[in-house]
Amino acid sequence: MPTVTKKDLIDRIADQTGQKRVVVKSTVQKFLDEVILELGKGNRLEFRDFGVFELRERQPRVAQNPKTLEPVEVPAKKVVKFKVGRRMQQSLDDDESTDDAKAQVERIRVRRPS
Amino acid sequence: MPTVTKKDLIDRIADQTGQKRVVVKSTVQKFLDEVILELGKGNRLEFRDFGVFELRERQPRVAQNPKTLEPVEVPAKKVVKFKVGRRMQQSLDDDESTDDAKAQVERIRVRRPS
Questions:
Q1: What is the predicted ipTM?
Q2: Alpha carbon of A47 to those of A103, B3, B94: distances in Å?
């Protein structure tokens, strides 16, 4: 899968807008830094059409060492969750070759029969 | 959890850099649009320190309707996966009050004993 970097996008935006690369770079970097900063404060970021970033804290818990069966304290952990926004999902779905199949098939969430 | 929007960050970046709001807004919007575009093409985006966006395709599969036990075709689905970059994870971990406990406790991934 080809990888696109920050630099690729900065170059492209500079070309499209006629802004100086260094200005675009600074804006993009500040934007990404602010996302990190806000998540660090425990805030949620919602970018309309794009998606939502939020921090989930996995609770600490006592688990069991499967070999010794001793209780093991598993500490809390911070995890970033990204949820795709509506426009992005639509845009991805539009590219999908399986659209027709999708429309015809009813989705059913399958649980184990109890 | 307080929510921060695109507008909040655009205002902040404009204040910090002295750039016009409309210019910052255009750059940020183009940046987010490019991410959507590239994911749509099936490309992976890697922003150093920040994280990686990539598309995963959930394979189509045949499941079972739990009530009727009929086979049900579940179509492929495109899903965006975000993986946090090193610096962001470090920055989040630095804020963590449980750092000391974390360092002392060995993490063990617990599986069900077979």
A1: 0.74
A2: 28, 10, 25
Q: Could you confirm whether domain B44-114 is CATH 4.10.520.10?
A: yes
Backbone angles phi, psi at B2, to 5 degrees: -60, 145
Amino acid at B66: P
pTM attached to this predicted model: 0.75
Burial class from Cβ neighbours inside 10 Å (0-12, 13-18, 19+) for residue A102 reads middle
Nearest CA in chain B to A64: B110
CB within 8 Å: A34 and B17 = no
| Residue from B7, B10, B11, B13 to probe the interface with A (highest A Cβ count within 10 Å) | B13
What does the pLDDT average to over A81-103? 72
> Which residues in chain A are contacts of B31 at CB distance < 8 A?
9, 13, 28, 31
